[in-house]
Design a protein that fits this description.
The chain is 47% helix and 16% strand. The chain starts with 17 loop residues before the first helix and ends in a 36-residue tail after the last strand. It has twelve helices and 13 strands. The chain has a five-stranded mixed β-barrel. A five-stranded parallel β-sheet has the order 7-6-8-9-10, with helices on both faces. Helix 3 (158-170) runs parallel beside helix 7 and helix 4 runs parallel beside helix 5 (231-239). The protein is of the alpha/beta class.
Length: 534
């Protein structure tokens, strides 16, 4: 060992460099512990490194020591190490001067039974599985395209950055992070509280409720991941109404939350890939479906067009459809004139045949017969009437004789009844007169109203009504042509006129075809017809 004694050293102690001291410790440790047997539980085993060496730790309830199996030694070991197994390792203890750590270089490995943590984990797994928390029937499917994703993880680790980056690359959505401790005392309670907190968010509230949850943590040893084996965390994951993805550790790491979650992801990045699809793939799929739909519609239209053209070719032409009806019409039109001539000849002959039997003497004799028959009927009617009158006169005479034979008291009563009837008749006449008078007054009032609304009162003030050939009033000069026959109605009658051009006076002499309407004929016998109540 080389030593360096400076001239200004206040003591006689030897000064060592860091490398000399580390090398001395390494030789001392390797000499004192060149062959040892250590019993402990394997922790942090991840298999062989890419270099072929295997790095892990051996621990008990109070301490731990790093261990390594070199690449050349690994094939000679009969027992392959597994996480959580209690083993007996044989080797030598050495130090690593680069970091001032010591480790055991294992040359042989023997199993010593399952470790305490693994035994506890197995017992808890069996108990929770017996309660049905790991049943497949409890698991829900993930939404295809969530709008909000809730992440339960540490806000300072690389896990949250990997998740956010992966979601942003695939399909950017809104992410809510619930920061928790993922290792150490109280971390399990924080994770369970975060899961229950996300489930307690009401839909439609100020904070949007996540559509899927991701519980994530990076890799580590069994002790580092022990928070996710906590019973509270497992029960919170099983009771979650929101679909939950477990992304704890690496692909070889299994915790109890992985069994209770709806989906287990091998890594946090894999959880992000499970949560959202790739937007570019969706765009490509939509574009592909759109192109297929457009092509299908085009082919369908072409097929329909071809079918329609085939049907059109199979249909007869318009000339073919109308040929027979057109021929029948021509034949009917050609025979119409001849038919009318024949019908006219037949009708004329029938008329002549009937008219040949009509003579004046026949009509005269027929009238004489009817006149004689009417006279006979009148004579019989007069005789019947005379006999009926005579019969009624005799009946009344007998009734008068019978009445004369009545007692005076009855005759007086009959006289009083007769007077009463006469009085009632006078009252009835008076009431009828009053009723007729009231009705006449009401009718006259209505007549006055009608007269006030009648256009004839307007004619009395000097106006006239112009009527066309169809006797309808003409209200606009624009619709009256030149040389049109019209009639002008005044208060005392009508005159005819011919329309002329603008500014020209109409003739006052009625045209030859316009004649004064004859006065209304009186009724037979010279008696005037009944007048209007108005």
């Amino acid at each position: 060992m080389n030593s360096l004694i400076p001239n200004d050293s206040p003591t006689n102690l030897t000064e060592f460099s860091v490398s000399e001291l580390s090398g001395s410790i390494k030789r001392t440790v390797e000499t004192a512990f060149d062959h040892v047997r250590v019993r402990g539980e394997i922790s942090g085993y991840r298999g062989q490194h890419s270099s072929g060496h295997a790095y892990f730790s051996l621990k008990d309830d109070r301490a731990r020591i790093d261990a390594v199996i070199w690449k050349g030694t690994f094939p000679r070991i009969k027992f392959r190490p597994e996480e959580g197994m209690e083993v007996i390792a044989t080797g030598k203890v050495t130090t690593f001067p680069g970091s001032s750590k010591y480790q055991i270089v294992i040359e042989n490995l023997e199993p010593a039974g399952a470790g305490a943590l693994m035994a506890l984990l197995d017992e808890r797994r069996r108990r929770l599985a017996a309660e049905g928390l790991f049943d497949q029937s409890r698991k829900r499917s993930l939404p295809f395209l969530p709008h909000v994703i809730g992440v339960v993880t540490s806000p300072t680790g690389a896990v949250i950055r990997d998740i956010l980056h992966r979601i942003s690359d695939r399909f950017p959505v809104h992410v809510i992070v619930w920061p928790v401790k993922v290792q150490g005392e109280g971390s399990g309670d924080e994770v369970a509280a975060a899961i229950r907190g996300f489930n307690a968010i009401e839909p439609g509230g100020p904070v949007r409720r996540p559509d899927v949850l991701i519980v994530a943590r990076g890799g580590g040893s069994l002790e580092d991941l022990w928070s996710f084996n906590d019973e509270a965390v497992v029960r919170a994951a099983a009771d979650s109404r929101i679909p939950l993805i477990s992304a704890v550790g690496h692909e070889t790491d299994w915790t109890l939350i992985d069994h209770a979650a709806d989906v287990r992801a091998p890594t946090p990045t894999g959880a992000a890939e499970m949560a959202v699809p790739v937007k570019a793939d969706l765009d490509a799929q939509i574009a592909n479906l759109t192109a297929r739909l457009r092509g299908c519609a085009t082919r369908q239209m072409d097929h329909r067009r071809q079918s329609l053209r085939a049907l059109v070719r199979a249909l007869p032409s318009l000339d073919q459809l109308l040929a027979l009806p057109r021929r029948r019409f021509d034949e009917a039109a050609a025979g119409l004139g001849r038919g009318l001539e024949r019908t006219t000849v037949v009708k004329r002959r029938s008329f002549e045949r009937v008219s040949s039997g009509l003579r004046l003497d026949l009509l005269t004799n027929r009238l004489a017969q009817q006149r004689q028959l009417l006279a006979d009927r009148l004579t019989r009617s007069e005789r019947c009437l005379e006999r009926q009158l005579l019969k009624e006169h005799n009946r009344l005479s007998k009734a008068g004789a019978s009445l004369s034979a009545l007692p005076p008291r009855l005759l007086g009563q009959l006289a009083r009844e007769r007077q009463h009837l006469v009085s009632l008749g006078r009252h009835a006449d008076t009431a009828m007169s009053h009723t007729l008078l009231r009705g006449r007054s009401a009718i006259m009032a209505q007549d006055r109203v009608l007269q006030s609304l009648s256009y004839k009162n307007v004619l009395k003030r000097g106006f006239a009504v112009v009527r066309g050939e169809d006797d309808k009033p003409l209200t606009r000069a624009a619709g009256i042509g030149e040389g049109l026959g019209v009639s002008l109605e005044f208060a005392d009658g009508r005159i005819a006129a011919i329309t002329g051009g603008e500014g020209e006076a109409t003739g006052s002499t009625p045209p030859p075809q316009a004649k004064k309407r004859p006065a209304k004929a009186e009724t037979a016998g010279g008696a005037p017809k009944q007048g209007s109540l108005f």
